[in-house]
Amino acid sequence: MVRYLVTLHLLPKENTLEYVKELHGLRELKIDEDYGLVLISPKRNLYTIRVSGDIDPDKLTSVQPKVKGVYADVKIAPIKS
Q1: Phi/psi at 9 (5° precision)
Q2: What's residue 53's pLDDT?
Q3: Exposure of 45 by Cβ count < 10 A (0-12 exposed, 13-18 middle, 19+ buried)?
Q4: 50 secondary structure, DSSP code
Q5: Which residue of 1, 31, 33, 49 sits 20 to 30 Å from the alpha carbon of 8, by its own alpha carbon?
Q6: Residue 81: helix, strand or coil by DSSP?
Q7: Is 73 helix (H, G, I), strand (E, B) or coil?
Q8: pTM of the predicted model, to two decimals?
Q9: In 3-state terms, what secondary structure has residue 8?
Q10: What is the C-alpha separation between 78 and 55, in angstroms, rounded?
Q11: What is the SS3 assignment for 67?
Q12: What's residue 75's pLDDT?
């Protein structure tokens, strides 16, 4: 299954995982609750979540204005030689 990191702009009263799970466009996605809601830029109120599934980044950003970016979350592991 493909994983993505979704960057969100959230105001202080919105910065909970429960709030994010109810946002239009994100309700349908499988959000990794163990990863949680991670603050990545306090000055800009930017957060990220990890989601799984088939995502159309352009559609997601068009239906949910709080989404500021969708990025692949690749698994990094050592290569045996």
Answers
A1: -100, 115
A2: 82
A3: middle
A4: E
A5: 1
A6: coil
A7: coil
A8: 0.89
A9: strand
A10: 27
A11: strand
A12: 79
Question: Is residue 73 a contact partner of residue 31, using CB atoms and an 8 Å limit?
Answer: no
Kindly compute the dihedral angle of the four CA atoms of residues 35, 33, 17, 50, in this order, to the nearest 10 degrees: 50
Give 23's contacts (C-beta < 8 A, 6+ positions apart): 64, 66
Which of these, 63, 18, 12, lies nearest to 37 by C-alpha position?
A: 18
Which amino acid, residue 71?
A: Y
| Per-residue model confidence as pLDDT tens for the chain (81 residues) | 789 999 999 999 999 999 999 999 999 899 999 999 999 999 999 999 999 988 899 999 999 999 999 999 887 878 887
Q: Which residues sit opposite 70 in a β-bridge?
A: 6
Q: What six digits make up the tokens of 62?
A: 């068009």
